[in-house]
Amino acid sequence: MTARARRALRRLMTALAGVAVASVALSGCLYAQIPEPAPSETRSPDVTGVPAELLPYYSQQPAWTACGAGMDCTDITAPLDWDDPGNGDISLAIVRHRASGQAQGSLLVNPGGPGGSGYDFVADSLGFAVGAALIERFDVIGFDPRGVGRSTAVSCLDATSMDDYLYGVVDEPRNTPQWEAALTARDASFADACEANSHGILPYITTVNSARDMDLIRGVLGDRTLNYLGYSYGTFLGATYAKLYPERAQRLVLDGAIDPTVSGLEVGVTQAAGFESALRAYLADCLTTRECPFNGALDEALTDFRALLASVSRAPMRNGDGRMLTADTMVTGVIAALYSADSWPYLTQALTAVLQGDSSVMFALADSYNARNPDGGYADNSAEAFRAYNCMDYPVEDGQAELDAAQAQLEAHAPTFAPYWQAPDPCEVWPYPPVGVREAITAPGSGPIVVVGTTNDPATPYEWSASLADQLEDGVLVTRVGEGHTGYNKGSGCVDSAVEGFLIDGTVPQDGLRCE
């Protein structure tokens, strides 16, 4: 599922900095306002209730080293297999920004994905990851989950092969048996490369194992309970933690939630409908501007957009670097911009350029989503880790009746994206069967868990946040009325006050609080 919005938005700003647009620098913009942190109290590891076989892990003393901009970094060791701790170890990369005021403990942050680097999220854009009030009161902790980035990582393809996989043209008519066979063969080659190059970790790249890693980080840092802020997929990680360790889940905020009961097929359909809604909102706004490449009423603009997408599908457009802009890549670029209304001007520029025969800005959008650098390399392994987690977490659903029903839902609720959305499930050829289940998470015995949902969030639709808050035995729903993915630290003082008051003081927001 596509839940990499915050990372993609930061990269988007960088990727388009050289284009003739009014660039907005969102990442790292608050560093100049953040005072130099005061030394934090060194706490002994918390080993309360830890089984004897796990004591060597929980009793680690982290060796922190300075790593720039008020940050210090360390690695801790975790079991490869939590069910068999003697079956080898992995390394988890941690970055810490010490509280600028009086620290009241650690705050772990996850940006989503699965596959997003929490290390980079905190190290590169602290003020984007959390607000100033949290920076003052907490040691903000970014970490790369197992399989990701600087931690023991999934590795699949080199940059050239990754380009072929993500951007290559399939020379078969769409939605034919030949097209499906070509995609399945490509997915199988990708999966084989992941198995060959990941040194045996693929069966253990699961959200359950990552949640156990997160409790290990909590214990090693010396916190008796967990303070946590998770965005997008990070909400599923946080909810899973609460399911496993309810007595330690005392101050959790889950922003832009995933509904743990929803199947993989349902995720795809619901997200497509969310992006369709966001596209309509974008076009309605675009039509009020002089720069908009479309004219007329909203439905006319939508018809013209669909015609442009169909034209690119019939005749892919060559980019200056030799890559071909296909309909699939164009959809990726459009979706990357629809995550946030801040990106709408870039989408306008990209669509205008495509209409003029220039695909470069649309590629910049797609590249921001795929973590591809302008020099052709990849900034991280997020696409590879994304696949590894999802293929282990989501049961494969390949019944024809279910597929037909999903396609009917797509055509009804996302008619613009429906022709380009469905494809053979790449997890059908993953080397290991999934172990995850889709079921409600209630977390009895946890503290209150605050769930933030945005009404027109395209990537994690609002109904998922409402559903998760309802499932949790002590769930509290905070609603941000607006556009874009996630709600905290996005300009709503109402949401920010609710989240920060809860994490700092334990003040539980009113359930159902609605921030207009």
From TrEMBL:
GO MF entries: hydrolase activity
Organism domain of life: Bacteria
Family matches, as Gene3D superfamilies: alpha/beta hydrolase
Keywords for this protein: Hydrolase, Signal
Record flagged with keyword Hydrolase: yes
Leader sequence residues: 1-32
Residue ranges constituting the Peptidase S33 tripeptidyl aminopeptidase-like C-terminal domain according to the UniProt record: 417-515
InterPro entries: AB_hydrolase_fold, Pept_S33_TAP-like_C, Serine_prot/Carboxylest_S33
Keyword Cell inner membrane appears in the UniProt entry: no
Sequence similarity: Belongs to the peptidase S33 family.
Name of the protein in its database record: Alpha/beta hydrolase
Record organism: Microbacterium soli
